[in-house]
Amino acid sequence: MDIYTVREELLTILNNIDSLQEQLDDIRASKPEGWKEDEEALLMQVDAYEDTIESLEWDLSEIVQELVKDIKNLTAKSNAFKAEKDKFACKERWAKERIDRENDILMWLMKSYGERKVECDLWDVSIRKNGGFPGIELTCEPDKLPERFRVEKTEYKLDLYQARQALDAGEQGLPFQYRPQGEHIVIR
Predict the structure, then answer these.
(1) Which of 13, 113, 138, 169 has its CA 20 to 30 A from that of 72?
(2) Would you say 148 and 183 are in contact if contact means Cβ atoms under 8 Å apart?
(3) Mean pLDDT of all residues in 40-66
(4) Those residues with Cβ within 8 angstroms of residue 106's Cβ, 6 or more apart along the chain or in another chain
(5) Which DSSP state fits 33?
(6) Does the pLDDT value for residue 92 go beyond 90?
């Protein structure tokens, strides 16, 4: 008898015993009418399954040997998968670093030629501003911010909405300014 047949038979028997034990627990908990007879019938079935386990002629050392072989093979496969995953993570990191370098080269080339858009046979490449509002950096200490630009009086933080309105309105002498907005390459 091979290990897979033994394993399947044993799992089937053990699952059946577990199912019968659950039924026994339910019967004992609810104690419906005639529950003693039901309990006896279920206990007889459990005994029959246990007798089946004892009657199966298995050579324990063979079963253990086959199971250990299986475990060793699966462990080796698992280790190989982990090594491959680590190798791919390294390759992914390398590819991302290379993408960043080549984007930097592309940005530098286009800027050095004074071009913001280049049309090629296969792609259109352009330099665009990063999305969202440009960041605002303080040019003074937070406690020196004028009252209308503070979010709270106890904690001095810049009110970004008010600051943007003031900068967009062209107010002069403000203790903050827009940060340079980043750019990125778009390939379509």
Answers:
(1) 13
(2) no
(3) 77
(4) 125, 185
(5) T
(6) yes
Identify the DSSP state of 179: P
Task: Report the distance separating Cα 40 and Cα 36, nearest Å.
Answer: 6
pLDDT at 154 over 70: no
Q: Please give the helix or strand (H or E) that residue 111 lies within, else none.
A: helix 60-112
Of 48, 46, 47, 65, nearest to 6 (Cα)? Answer: 65
Residue of 99, 106, 105 lying closest to 124 (CA atoms):
106
One-letter amino acid of 6: V
Choice between 187 and 103, residue whose per-residue pLDDT is larger: 103
- Cα separation, 183 vs 188, whole angstroms: 16
Question: CA 92, 97, 101, 103 torsion: positive or negative?
Answer: positive
Task: Count the helix, strand and coil residues of the chain and give each as a percent rounded to the nearest 5.
Answer: 65, 10, 25
Strand partners, 177: 137
Q: How far apart are CA 37 and CA 56, in angstroms?
A: 29
What are the extents of the domains in the chain? 3-58, 129-187
> What residues pair up with 118 in beta bridges, in sequence order?
125
Cα dist from 165 to 67, 150, 174, 177, whole Å: 73, 14, 12, 12
The average pLDDT across 111-115 equals 93
Of the candidates 56, 45, 42, which has an alpha carbon nearest to the alpha carbon of residue 9? Answer: 56
Task: Look over the chain and give the mean of its residue pLDDT values, rounded to a whole number.
Answer: 85
